[in-house]
Amino acid sequence: MKKVGNHNSIAKKLFIGLALSLIFSLNSFAQDAAPVADDAAAPAATSGGDAVKGKELFNANCAACHKMDAKATGPALRGVAGKYDTPWLYKWIRNSSELIKSGDAQAVKVYNENNKAVMSAFPQLSDSDIDNILAYTSEPKVEAPAAAAGTVAVPGTSVSDSGISNNIILGALALVMVVLVVMLFLVNKVLSKVAKVNGIEVEPKTATTPIWKAFVRNQFLVLVTAIFLLLASAYFVYGFLMQIGVDQDYAPIQPIHYSHRIHAGDNEINCKYCHSAARVSKNAGIPSLNVCMNCHKNIGEVAESTATPEYSKAFYDEQIQKLYTAVGWDPASQSYTGKTQPVKWVRIHNLPDFVYFNHSQHVTVAGIECQTCHGPVQEYEIQKQFAPLTMGWCIDCHRKTDVKMEGNEYYTKIHAELSKKYGVEKLTAAQMGGLECGKCHY
Ligand code: HEC
Ligand code: HEC
Ligand code: HEC
Ligand code: HEC
Ligand code: HEC
Ligand code: HEC
């Protein structure tokens, strides 16, 4: 008997050991796959300035025209201290136009290479200020380690930047499980053979009443369970039927991850700046990409502080690049290439064809806020359908909402007549005819 107990515990130990080694191997696997931050781009010659102060000065004076690693209005400035000698840079930065006019060969060359764009003069900067800026521009480039994580963070997409898709990992796990089961089976077989050879009887299991038999014998329990199951399924079937055609909370992945939180929330851009048609026509419309470029000619990347734990700066910057690809904008030369590809936004709100809904009627005439029907859009990272858009939803609001009569001549006469008819001061949209089938149905 004692040895039999041993046999079980050996199998158990073996299993735990295997499981542990599996966990450890997975852990080291994950570490291998983690993106490695590399400090690329070796620094050019460093001048003895303070890079932190330099960064402030750079952001305040130069960032409007220069980026560290990409061409903007002026050339990229990383490593510029290694390109020219410092006295020349002092002169250039304080007043480049003067230097060009004086006929300095190097200055004229830089000027011509950059399409003769004019750089502002900075006579107020001292030598040490400029040293600080140059120290900042001489810092090595740090790759954001979040670059890979950012793309993984898109909910719903299964591509992972580490190159190892989740499916392969799952497959490997399944394989390991199968191997484990087979091994356990074999070990069990060998151990029972050993036991047999040693003349030890493995005790057969004593038969007890299976739980389902006990259950079937208890008629009351069966009845209660049957009723419960029937009610539950009726509940779910009803819920499912009521869901047909109702797409509340529908939030598809868009071709460009466009965040209303960042635009309408953080940057307080008015809804009607982009959805300008909502005021005057039936449809609110999605803005054309030219509207985006009013701002994005100059906004090629987001600020460090815009990144969230879920979406990295690298992820957002990539989205703006998608916008550039779509409109055919080359940020390096600051010009359109002429190669465009339309962005296919996925339509979220969609009433059936037999329903008539008009934005201007609700937004301009009734003065209803967009948020009443679309929810707190300025907080949405991903746009979604807030309202159910059912007939009951429309009717409910028409019953409850008073029509805005003030300052609307069209209503003055109707109001006088109808308020007499209903004997009330205020009229709801319903009393104005907002429940008539023909108003909403073609
Ligand atoms: C109004 C836009 C503008 C601002 C602001 C500006 N620059 Fe420039 N910068 C340019 C342009 C344009 C060029 C290219 C030369 C030309 O066309 O005059 C240039 C060229 C340079 C060059 C030569 C780069 C090379 O690789 O040849 C340096 C160095 C430079 N700028 C430093 C600065 C510093 C430092 C600041 C901030 C204190 C600054 N710039 C602010 C527009 C600007
Ligand atoms: C900078 C431009 C811009 C601003 C400002 C803006 N939107 Fe949008 N809106 C878009 C774009 C682009 C889309 C399509 C992509 C998407 O659905 O996220 C969109 C989609 C929508 C949709 C879903 C459309 C559909 O397919 O059914 C609604 C609703 C909406 N916006 C409401 C608002 C409201 C309300 C505000 C103000 C709080 C607002 N938007 C501000 C650009 C903008
Ligand atoms: C009125 C100016 C303005 C307009 C118009 C505008 N944007 Fe932006 N956009 C911004 C600002 C500001 C930021 C954030 C910059 C930051 O955080 O540093 C931004 C950030 C972004 C980002 C990165 C964050 C995100 O939302 O994923 C994308 C992508 C983007 N815009 C796309 C668009 C598209 C597409 C349109 C046109 C439908 C558009 N923008 C119109 C000002 C604008
Ligand atoms: C009374 C409710 C209501 C108000 C207020 C409202 N919307 Fe809508 N919105 C809807 C409905 C319903 C749809 C679906 C229309 C359809 O499918 O024909 C819709 C659709 C949209 C769409 C999808 C594209 C389109 O043109 O159909 C956008 C974008 C949109 N609304 C933006 C806005 C903005 C911006 C405002 C504020 C200026 C606003 N809405 C105010 C109910 C409303
Ligand atoms: C948030 C409240 C609200 C919601 C939701 C709403 N409406 Fe309205 N609707 C109004 C108000 C208020 C008026 C009266 C506007 C006016 O002054 O003419 C109105 C007027 C109308 C009218 C014109 C009625 C007439 O007498 O000429 C139509 C048609 C209409 N709505 C259709 C719809 C449809 C379709 C939906 C649902 C998809 C809907 N509305 C959802 C508030 C709402
Ligand atoms: C305020 C606007 C409005 C009025 C008034 C209105 N309906 Fe509707 N009706 C809707 C909307 C919106 C839908 C689409 C609902 C959906 O897609 O779930 C709809 C859907 C329907 C449907 C299709 C069934 C369904 O639920 O999808 C029928 C039938 C219908 N309406 C009949 C009527 C009749 C009859 C009247 C007059 C008594 C009427 N409606 C008045 C807005 C209205």
TrEMBL record:
InterPro entries: Cyt_c-like_dom, Cyt_c-like_dom_sf, Cyt_c_III_dom, Multihaem_cyt_sf
Keyword Electron transport applies: yes
Cross-referenced Pfam families: Cytochrom_C, Cytochrom_CIII
Transmembrane segments: 168-187, 220-241
Domain Cytochrome c per the UniProt entry, residue ranges: 49-141
Signal peptide: 1-30
Organism superkingdom: Bacteria
A molecular function GO annotation: heme binding
Keyword annotations from UniProtKB, A to Z: Electron transport, Heme, Iron, Membrane, Metal-binding, Signal, Transmembrane, Transmembrane helix, Transport
PANTHER family: CYTOCHROME C7-LIKE DOMAIN-CONTAINING PROTEIN, LIPOPROTEIN CYTOCHROME C
Protein name: Quinol:cytochrome c oxidoreductase pentaheme cytochrome subunit
